[in-house]
Amino acid sequence: MTVTQLSAQELFRAAYDNRYTWDKSFPGYSADITFKDGDKIITGQVIVNAELKAEVLGVDDESAKKVIHGQAWEIAIHRVRRTFEETHGANTFCYGATDENGAVEILMGGKAEGDRYKVHNNIVTLVHRHIHGVVVTINTFGVHDTGEGYLSHTYDSVYHEPKTGEQRGGVSNFVDEYEKVGNYFILNRREIRTETAGQVTVQEFVFSNIKLLEPVAA
């Protein structure tokens, strides 16, 4: 019996296509936001439109507004549906090591030379990417299975200098929760615990009263 092994590209493509994304009909949404930053609590409203542009309303604190906007933008950008070719068409793929948990390393060449990923049970469990002058490393520990693809539930994130490997900032641990609104899964809570030099800071973003926007008439 001949066992046909998937190529590294095929294995990675299957996990890439297994991520949950919003379709082209996604109308955008509005939500109330409660942002807790240590002892500080700030409320306002977030709107993410059909083009996935984010807007924060009712928040006077400029630094808090910037943080909330950054989260809303990041939430939306990860739900954009792009084909594998659009994202990875200029890359090559080869197998690296398999870790003790059975996660398979995928080493990138081509445009993404130096980047690497791990895939386990059709889920990307490690992202190690050069982006905007830093290296970001994300380990995913748990996911939500939506039935239409997976969403990260618990994961961490850390940045390093590309040349020296020196860590930039602390290690952040995330917990993401989602709810289904209409046909779409939308983040309703994110907790970020960041440890820097032994000090832990906690930020929590709670999105409530989430409503899809009316589709814009063509």
TrEMBL record:
<dbReference type="InterPro" id="IPR021809">
    <property type="entry name" value="DUF3386"/>
</dbReference>
<protein>
    <submittedName>
        <fullName>DUF3386 domain-containing protein</fullName>
    </submittedName>
</protein>
<dbReference type="Pfam" id="PF11866">
    <property type="entry name" value="DUF3386"/>
</dbReference>
